[in-house]
Amino acid sequence: MMRILPMKLAVKKSRKRATIKFIIVLTILLIVLNLPIVSNKVRNYTYLFFSPFQSGFWKAGSFVSNFLSGIKNSSQLSQENELLKSKINNLIIQGAKNFELEKENQSLRQALKMQDERDFKLIFANIISKEIDKDIIILDRGKKESIIKDLPVITEEGVLIGKVEEVYDDFSRVSLISEKSTVFNVRIWREEEGFNDDIQGVINGLGGLKLELKLIPKEKDIRDSDVVLTSALGGIFPEGLLVGKTRDLQKVDIEPFWRIKVEPAFNITNSGRVFLIE
Amino acid sequence: MMIILSSILVYFLVVIQYSFLVHFTALRHVPSLALISIILIFLLEKQENNLGVWMSLIGGFILDIFSKSFFIGFYALILLSVMLLIRLVLKRNIQFFHIVNL
């Protein structure tokens, strides 16, 4: 009995020492990992290690989700098809008109020796993952491909997705326009009437892929399905990028502005391919 | 061996969570598979094993990298605290069970 007690005490002491050593090592490790240079490198190499599997899973997820949504919406497809056919016809007519206008515009620009403002240089990138609790995606392009912070990101169709928030060597983190901290200026465009210069507002991200249109006075004529495009006013995004369509318009007596939800036009599950505007 | 196998499991769960499940927006809230699996490991492991400690560090580190938390190690510390809490609660339950059996 007398011998067991000192042995127990020794075991307890050695356990205490091991716990203290573990806490000290953990603290040092946390401090080192959180140094800005180290943390960026650590994130970059972890993404490098994960990316081959991630891109595979992203494509599989995109395929399955598109397939399931196709089954779900099959009843509406024929109606939508008819509507789209009539829209395509209208667009062909509009395209022909635009072609003439563009030619005229180019010759006038040449005459005035002006550069086309919409001549963007695009950098192609793939989405490899999305954070589950935030509207943030990871792209497989980084500093090595001359990506810098705040570059706008668009889809293949020219729909605005977001802007670069953080850049690593081989990857970049993009904050979607629906992320809570995002605010930028927009203009309203109507299919029949074109731009209405009077209607300008501010888009505010609500999180969960939702958007809200703010600061549009109640006396302005705004309707459901009006098109929301970026404005160059804030200097964050280039002019004329598609943001979405107005939905769920409400007038509240005590407020001077409309309450408008915006249905985002982007769908990151569609292809996973995006472009960064340099 | 168990640590390596569990780490590979958590690794694939994180990849599935962040690259596959995020497409199903109808789910609205995607379950954190990695977090659930790590907590299950805590519950099922033997008291004398250190698997829980390793899993909270490795799993927490992977989650920290992918979810851009306040600092690297945030999830690791939370998981470590959860593991200690579970061990404490389990120990109490076992003592209570012995008393009832007596």
Could you walk me through the main structural features you see in this protein, from its secondary elements to its overall organization?
The complex is a heterodimer of chains A (278) and B (102). With 278 residues, chain A is of the alpha+beta class. Chain A has 3 helices and 12 strands; from the N terminus they run αααββββββββββββ. Chain A has helices spanning 4-33, 36-72, 74-112; strands spanning 122-130, 136-139, 152-155, 160-167, 172-176, 183-190, 194-207, 210-214, 227-230, 242-251, 258-264, 273-277. In chain A, the strands form 2 sheets. A 6-stranded antiparallel β-barrel of chain A has the order 1-2-5-4-3-12. In chain A, strands 6-7-8-11-10-9 form a 6-stranded antiparallel β-barrel. In chain A, a hairpin with a 4-residue loop joins β4 and β5. The termini of chain A are far apart. The mean pLDDT of chain A is 82. Helix content of chain B is 75%, strand content 0%. Chain B has helices at 2-20, 33-44, 51-67, 74-101. The radius of gyration of chain B is 16 Å and the shape is globular. The chains are: A alpha+beta (278), B mainly alpha (102). Chain A binds chain B through residues 26, 29-30, 33-34, 39, 42-43, 46-47, 50, 53-55, 57-58, 60-62, 64-65, 68, 128-134, 136, 173, 208-209, 269, and chain B through 11-12, 14-25, 28-30, 32, 57, 62, 65-68, 71-73, 77.
